[in-house]
Amino acid sequence: MKIKNLPSIICLLLFQTICSQQLLPDSLQQKSVEDKIIFLQQEGQRQQSIDSSNVYFNEALKLAKTCDCDSLYFRSVEYISDTYYSQGNYKKAIAFIKPFLAQAKESNSTIYLFRIHTHLAKNLMLSEQHDEALKHYESALEFSKKLQNKIYLADAYNNLGDMYNTTGLHKNAKKYLLLALKVYNSINAPETEKLYTYKNLMQAVENPEDIEEYAKKALNSLHKSEPKEQASFYLYEGDAYLSKNEGLLTPKHYKKSLLAFNKAITIADSLNLDIYKNFGLIGKGSVLLNLNRTSDAIAALEKAKQLPQTIPQNEFYLLRKLAVAYERNNNYKKAFITSKEMFTLQDSISHYQSKEKFAEFDAKFNLAEKDKEIALQELEIAKQRNARNKWIFSSIGTLLLGLFIILWLITKQKRKKTLVQMKLEKEQEINQLRTKFLGNIAHEIRTPLTLVSGNLNLALENLDNTTKAKKNLQVALDNTKKITDDANEILELLKFEGHKMTLNKTAVPLRTSLERIVFSFHSMAQIKAVEISYYSNIANTIFVNTDIGKIEKIINNLLSNAIKYAPSNSKIIVNDVFNTDTLSVSVTDFGEGIKYDEQKKIFERFYQSENASKVGGIGIGLALSKEFSELLNGSLTVDSKPGKGSTFTLKIPMQTTENNTENVTKPTSLIPQQFPNHNNSSIKEHILIVEDNPQMATYLKELLEDIYHCDVAFNGEEALNLLKTQTYSLITSDIMMPKIDGFELREKINTIEKHKYTPFIFISAKTLEIDKIKGFSLGIADYIVKPFNKNELIARIKNLLKNKASRIKWQLENTNQLSTTERSDQKLLRKIETYIVENLDNDDFKIKELADYVGYSQRQLARIMKQYTGMSPVKFILEIRLQKAFTFLQNKTFFTLSEVRFAVGISSSAYFNKKFKERFGIAPADLI
């Protein structure tokens, strides 16, 4: 390249010397101009910020003008063009690169002409100047053929494919892209070279299923690419699904599109690529609209709107989607305002395009005069500069460079910290989900295990009573099936994830099959006093070809949930309709209902609503039911109003073996029977059992009703209603229950004067120490973990009632000694208990030592403990020792009984065994 104007050369060299001193290290000062240009280009590529890259590339271009090095010159042009392209400033890129096209023609270099035409075309394409872009891409193709280089030829075909994709001519695009692929295969090009082709083929194919094929091929080499290239790929993948005919798309395709856009947004956010993030958010909003997740769509589109909008047409599309979203969300005011913005923008685009054409002619007319004027001004300024300005520029440059380096280091450190934090948060989220899921499984298995082991023991005890033994065995079998069903749900989920799920269709009598499924819940509903009303219009003669096993699993899940959430003495309605080869089954309960914002989330894997978290479950039942319904080409939906109940509706298309004839039957009601009334015994102690699982409630009542008179409540709310009219000697309660859980129940009982001292036991599947601590801090008397031993439960209840009776007797006999400072004495009891635990392993611990510690006489200490615990100090110390021993044994803290005895300060083996069995109903060895 030659510059004829000598004064310009002198000024340019002076300026370049100053800039070079700022950007070039000392080691390069004596090197050739070519070495300096290569260094600047490499440094520009290494920069994290686009603006920083541009500084180096511009400096390289300035140096390249001073030497006869065309390849380095045009390479610098390409780098600068790419920076404008990455910023989305396509018009600036076009204006920058157009003058160099003429220089490339002057150089008569085929390779430079190919590159300049390509860079110009891709910016014209994104500026909506499609006809002009196509001309340049076609020119690039001709030059690539002259080069006789297969890589350049494949690039040219790729670019034409991209161009036709952009204009919606996907068949033309596919033709050129397959040609590109053919060229790559002919030279055995590595997969990384084909990445761009695979990306464009995802857009060009007609069938959405083909997208996944090319996406998989691209992903094989994507991990080796730069993050920016990865973000671009995920944008292509997400948009590929949206570009297809909506009639061919299923929720599965939209979910894949959503996943791709989310990945692109994450990467773009980490790299501060606002334009990529903008494209990703708009795409995400469009997908969410198609999935009817309107609120989420609005959130994504509003985020996109806050980012800089570089392409008016893109902004127009964003506003159109946002207006639709607001309208669907019934926010008509925002929908109107957004629509108004959209039409204003459309008018401005049209006006701008028209105005731009006139401005172009005007600019050409005035360009020559302005150039002359600017040249004269610059020459005058150059003449006025003197040597003094050199050190000023050098100082300023050095200062700016220092600031730039500091800012670059700070930015680099922040990005590293952000990436580490994102990885950590993702890992923590995965760990939390895994822990919650495993915890739910462990919790869910304890209740049925209790019922299995407990009822098997009862069956052995009831061998002489065949009826009772059969009943016990049936309950054990039912809960064995419950454990098996939970395990099968997890296996079914794994099959879905591995795409191994298949249908097993057989011819079945539809009415008979559905009745069998519904009637199997008779006994469970009966225990909870819930009525199931069954309606059907299906003729007994109709046979259908379907996978009845999958349908049974769906209905079983819906009915078990309905019974779980339905209040006692309420109704569940099951309605079957079969019309025009479609089965519709609805299950309605009148429980608490589901909040609107949770109604879509309940079908997501592992999601548990606020109510569900109180009653347990592993969080995959409804998700699996939803996937089964879709596998059967059907649907599962919910309609719910908080406080009024929920209706789940299953719709499945079916092939019949004969025509459907209407045969509407009267409703069949499964009328529940109440628990048997045992009010004939006035001597027995009165116990309240609070348990939401009907079979567990029945089991507990069966264990205790021979000794005590028992009432049952299925949640905390029912228990509080009973406590308004009844007085109980003792209360047992589960923790996880609907409406009011065990913790809330205990808190409310603490505010009721006549019930707050009633002995209270938690019988729960929750095993964590934090739950036990919370229970005891609320004032419970005992905590039993499922599964438990029958004798252990009875022994604990007897001991608590015995202590209560002893306390009441002492209070009646010593009315004049009763303490009125209840709160301070309760604090004293906690202090006493803490001191005993601290001296637990001391088998020579004396009552006098305890009394001296708390500052009371032995007599005063005995009075306080009798008043509030019903136990003497000696018995109280023994109680704490035994409780701690039970905890050690249950948690397998020690290997031998001897270690446990010495840890709680009891040296005699016989004494320890005797007292332990008296207290808990089981021998210590049973827990080893």
TrEMBL record:
Protein name: histidine kinase
Coiled-coil stretches noted in the UniProt entry, renumbered to this chain: 416-476
Membrane-spanning segments: 391-410
Top-level taxonomy: Bacteria, Pseudomonadati, Bacteroidota, Flavobacteriia, Flavobacteriales
SMART domains reported for this sequence: HATPase_c, HisKA, HTH_ARAC, REC, TPR
Organism listed in the record: Corallibacter vietnamensis
Domain Histidine kinase: 440-656
PANTHER family: HYBRID SIGNAL TRANSDUCTION HISTIDINE KINASE C (PTHR43547:SF2), TWO-COMPONENT HISTIDINE KINASE (PTHR43547)
Every HTH araC/xylS-type domain range: 830-928
